[in-house]
Write a structure and sequence with these properties.
The chain has 246 residues and is mainly alpha-helical. Helices cover 39% and strands 5% of the residues. The chain has ten helices and three strands; from the N terminus they run ααααααααααβββ. The chain has a three-stranded antiparallel beta sheet with strand order 1-3-2, with helices on one face. α6 packs across α7, α6 crosses α10 and α7 packs across α10.
């Protein structure tokens, strides 16, 4: 998601810290989350940039409409691919990715975000999730990845949401996070730490459709992973210390 779309300034001052030495002076509480403004997914057109553009490009490329780089830049080649896709699917071929195009691409969360449905900030831009879901997602991101880059933190959130969408995992954020042995941070109690502003923004971006992992449902740190099974998963990308896989 383009950084300009996020409400508020992203705090990038969180240093790579050990699990036992984290500083919590920028922590957010559940009440802060419940009253925070939530980001709306953008209508994409030529000149747009960001993670959501990458997801549009990835899907178009997978289906043979787009041959360029998945670089997050909505240039003329992306516009042409969107137009071809729209024409094929009986949509207005204007090259702009809006709600109908998102739906045809299968980007249902982005379509729902554009549709709105917030009521007094009790729900996130994705109407399937509540502020409580956002807060829990941010807690897991903070507990699992507070020493990673901002993109790395969004990526962890995206994996959790990809699991919610997968038939292989529970269909709620709480179900995924608290699934037995799924996350080290739950097993060792770090899930109970209060998330900071960076984790909050990362959770918002993940919910609004930014997926730096391109659909991954697993991630691990190869330096500390002990399960031989996880190494057998197909690697898609590496962000910081984490390998993301399917």
């Amino acid at each position: 998601m383009k950084k300009a779309l996020r409400m508020g300034v992203v705090a990038l001052a969180v240093a790579a810290v050990g699990s036992a030495t984290a500083i919590f002076n920028t922590a957010y509480t559940h009440d802060d989350y419940a009253s925070a403004p939530f980001v709306q997914t953008a209508v994409l057109k030529q000149g747009a940039t960001g993670g959501e553009v990458k997801e549009v490009q990835r899907r178009l490329k997978q289906w043979g409409y787009y041959n360029g780089a998945v670089d997050g830049v909505y240039g003329p080649q992306t516009v042409a691919a969107v137009k071809a896709f729209q024409k094929k699917n009986g949509l207005k071929a204007d090259g702009i990715a809006g709600k109908s195009t998102y739906e045809a691409l299968g980007m249902n969360e982005s379509a729902k975000a554009l549709q709105g449905g917030n009521s007094g900030n009790t729900q996130t831009a994705n109407s399937n999730y509540t502020s409580s879901d956002l807060y829990l997602l941010a807690k897991c991101i903070y507990a699992e990845a507070r020493g990673e880059s901002y993109t790395g933190q969004v990526a962890v959130g995206a994996v959790i949401l990809n699991r919610v969408a997968s038939s292989k995992f529970p269909n709620t954020i709480s179900g995924v996070i608290y699934q037995r042995h799924a996350f080290t941070a739950v097993s060792d109690g770090q899930i109970n730490l209060s998330p900071d502003k960076t984790a909050m923004n990362a959770a918002q971006d993940a919910m609004n459709g930014w997926d730096p992992t391109y659909g991954c449902i697993y991630y691990y740190n190869p330096a500390v992973a002990t399960s031989s099974w996880i190494f057998s998963r197909q690697t898609v990308t590496t962000i910081g210390k984490h390998v993301f896989a399917i």
